[in-house]
Amino acid sequence: MEKDHIHFMRKALEEAKYAFYKNEVPVGCVIVNENEIISRSSNMVELLNDSTAHAELIAITSAQNSINNKNLDGCILYTTLEPCLMCHGAIYWSKINTIVYGASDEKRGFSRHNLEIDRKINIVKGVMEEESRELLENFFKKIRG
User: Fold this and answer.
1) Torsion angles phi and psi, residue 103, rounded to 5
2) Cα–Cα distance list, 113 to 10, 61, 83 (Å)
3) What is the dihedral of CA 4, 9, 10, 11, to 10 degrees?
4) Which of 142, 5, 26, 140 lies closest to 80 in space, CA to CA?
5) Exactly one of 15, 24, 56, 82 is catalytic; which is it?
6) Among candidate residues 117, 34, 135, the one with its CA nearest the CA of residue 79
7) Cα distance between residue 139 and residue 145, in whole Å
């Protein structure tokens, strides 16, 4: 299972690198159903001038369209950065079962909050954490000069 997590996190990192080159905060996301990627995205906040255009939200909408169903029960969401509270809410409502993320987000990540929800979402953290964190650090060095 860990090998699968690394494989799919590499795909999420490809999306994050794409965001980096578009001058977006480099977060990438893929959603997997039955070992197949059904959606992929990167942050599009700057491109769309939309503060809600996080990689996870775009990937969720794309996945729902891909399978023509609002429920993503059985899917795994891979993201390079711990989801924020807004994205965690969307993950909850879409019924995704598992979140796998790379770098933790001590400032804005959902784990800062004591969430009491009525179903368990499996959390796997730290998959390719160093690569995810390094990409973020390089981005912020680049934009801050």
Assistant:
1) -85, 140
2) 28, 25, 12
3) 100
4) 26
5) 56
6) 135
7) 10
Half-sphere exposure of 121 (CA within 13 A, CB side): 27
95-143 tens-digit pLDDT: 999 999 999 998 998 988 777 787 889 999 999 999 999 999 999 999 8
Rounded Cα–Cα distance for residues 135 and 26 (Å): 7
pTM: 0.94
Whose tokens are 């390079």? That residue is: 80
56 is catalytic: yes
In 3D space, the residue among 60, 61, 78 whose CA is nearest the CA of residue 8 turns out to be 78
Structure tokens, 49: 């001038």
Report pLDDT digits (tens) over 24-77: 999 999 999 999 999 999 999 999 999 999 999 999 999 999 999 999 999 999
Sort strands 28-33 and 76-81 into parallel, antiparallel or unpaired.
antiparallel
Q: In the block, which residue shows the tokens 């965690």?
A: 88
Other Cβ atoms closer than 10 A to 3: 7
Q: Which amino acid is at 42?
A: S
Separation CA 70–CA 128 (nearest Å) = 29
